[in-house]
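Thread: "does anyone have the structure for this chain?"

Original post by V.I.:
We have the sequence but no experimental structure in hand. Need at least a predicted one for the grant figures.
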Amino acid sequence: MRHTLHLVSITAAFTFAAWMASGAALARPAVAKATATVLATYPHGAQLAAGHGVLAVAAHTADDRAATLLVGSGTDAPVPAPGAGTLPRWAIPHVGTDTHGAPVVTYPRCGSSAVASCDLYAWNVDTHVEQRVAAAARGGVGEIEGAFDGGALVFSRWTGKGKPVTFIDHQQVFAPTTLFYRPAHGSVRRLAAPGGEQLALRGRWIAQVRDTTTPENDGLCGVSTVELVSVSGKTVRPMRTTGCGLNGQSSAGPSFIGGGLMFALVENDAGDGIVLRRGLAATARAQQARTPDVLIGFAPSSPTAGYALVERYPADADDPVYDLQRVTGLASAAA
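Reply from O.Q.:
Generated one for you, tokens below.
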């Protein structure tokens, strides 16, 4: 059925501005829109990640119950990753590097429909070998996300009710999780900072999106915050808070790009989107760039380019399809 209350558009934001604690809408300076080229179309949706010259797509299967890992680069349409197993429908892939600097894609695989049966796996882009991330595995609980950086690992265990959801369901993609960190040559430790979803790791910083809803700011469907967490878990730095609902915003896909943090804002029932980028310092100022279409997902590959997932309704169709676009020419301006 065609969604009427939650037609989602995403804005990607280059954030070198102060974090807006109020979650108010961004000012929109006159910035030229980027250009987009369609690489593939997914009838049932997908989730994206990019980095280190690799594009990873978790494409939903025809029965809409699972996902297949696809990989590509540049302007090439992603193809099935040889040797990779089946992913759950809600899986968010991540692209990082192992201790040798080789790119790896990390994702969950599950033994049953229960999230508690899920473990993390890493697929090596060069060797096409999939390995279970043994350091993260623990029986009876589910690991849902993980990201590598030079062999260091951040991962989360699911503590929410039910199952994770996706933006394709027009719901927020965050829930309570427990956050863990393992140095490249060390042991796993649980972090005191509360965990979220959509993890990224670079050096001493973890990025995530976390549910920060309170009775005072609940709105129609909650509030989320993009934040930085130090790998010690002792420092939490809010970067952007957004409230979802009609004309509200949700946050998506934080990534460390060019010395800063880049992420997307999902705006419900709104017009075009904005791409944000922000430096990591608490006093850094923000920049923003406009995206060409209504978006459901965004994975930056550089400060001026990335990959977008665009929801599109074919003529006379009640259900949407999802176009994967290569986006270039993200011209930025002060937010």
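V.I.: this helps a lot. Residues 5 and 250 are 15 Å apart (CA to CA).
O.Q.: and Confidence is low (pLDDT under 50) at residues 1-29.
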